[in-house]
Amino acid sequence: MSGLLRRIGLVMTTLAVIGGPALAGQPNSQRLYNSLAHAAPELNPQALKSALSAMQCAVANGASQARHLAVIDYSQPSTARRLWIFDLRQKKLVLRDLVAHGQKSGENFATQFSNQLGSYQSSLGLFRTQESYQGTHGYSLRMDGLEPGFNDLARDRAIVIHAADYVNPLWSQRQGRIGRSQGCPAVRPQVARQVIDKLKGGQFMFSWYPDPSWLKRSAYLNCKPQQVASILGANGG
Predict the structure, then answer these.
(1) Which has the closest alpha carbon to 14: 230, 213, 228, 215?
(2) What's the angle, vertex CA 75, arms to CA 69 and CA 76, rounded to 5?
(3) What residues form DSSP beta bridges with 133?
(4) What InterPro entries would the database entry show (predicted)?
(5) pTM (2 decimals)?
(6) How confident is the model at residue 236 (pLDDT cuts 50, 70, 90)?
(7) How far from 28 is each of 19, 82, 94, 207, CA to CA, in Å?
(8) CA distance 146 to 112
(9) SS3 string of the chain?
(10) What would the pLDDT profile of 86-113 be if each residue is shown by its tens digit?
């Protein structure tokens, strides 16, 4: 009975976080989902639901709220505009554009994902963006992966958001896909500054693909409070 009461308490806590000022006035998770789904009708509903669930699980268990949420739907081809950035306060889409996947994740479609150094593959799951900086690719954005075993080596792997000339729809006319990265979610140079400025400083990014292992084991998709709180504590929330 006590276990049931604890689970009910966690549900009520999550709903309070979702419905209160913590998410900048969103009445509840369903209304937030409905608004964002309406703003982005071509985004896979499961990808959006998963992104919101993962983010809300993080917030309910100690993460600070974010203004923006980025969703990458890797079930879509690289030739599609599969990056969405949402303003959570205004419940609107602020940008949709192309994004690259890793060289060894696949050709036009990404089908393989990794957390390993040198894999040249993209990673799945929930990320927290951090500091912007000037690097090899110019203005770039570091981020930390929050999912052990799936993306928590992102910083060690130098998985960052940066501009890349190969993120170009003209490539698809020659090769049937845009160019690929070494695992980074690279974007077009024309939108890179806008993407980074919207996402820097503690926003959420979520990379989705119907990978059975990740769907089953993700601490955020399955909202495991103790594990999530431990992860967030280690990452400073």
Answers:
(1) 228
(2) 85
(3) 140
(4) YkuD_2
(5) 0.87
(6) confident
(7) 4, 26, 21, 23
(8) 19
(9) CHHHHHHHHHHHHHHHHHHCHHHCCCCCHHHHHHHHHHHCCCCCHHHHHHHHHHHHHHHHCCCCCCCEEEEEECCCCCCCCCEEEEECCCCEEEEEECCCCECCCCCCCCCCECCCCCCCCECCEEEEEEEEEEECCEEEEEEEECCCCCCCCCCCCCCEECECCCCCHHHHHHHCCCCCECCCCCECHHHHHHHHHHHCCCCEEEEECCCHHHHHHCCCCCCCHHHHHHHHHHCCC
(10) 999 999 999 999 999 999 999 999 999 9
In three-state form (DSSP H/G/I as H, E/B as E, the rest C), the secondary structure along 103-153 is: CCCCCCCCCCECCCCCCCCECCEEEEEEEEEEECCEEEEEEEECCCCCCCC
Tens-place pLDDT, residues 118-164 = 999 999 999 999 999 999 999 999 999 999 999 999 999 999 999 99
> CB burial class (10 A; 0-12, 13-18, 19+) of residue 42?
exposed
Long-range contacts of 102-106 (CB under 8 A, 24+ apart): 102/180, 102/181, 102/182, 102/183, 102/184, 103/180, 103/181, 103/182, 105/74, 105/180, 105/183
Amino acid at 202: G
Identify which of 62, 80, 65, 5 has the alpha carbon closest to the alpha carbon of residue 227.
Answer: 62
pLDDT of residue 26: 42
Number of Cβ within 10 Å of residue 104's Cβ equals 17
Cβ burial of 94 (10 Å; 0-12, 13-18, 19+) is: middle
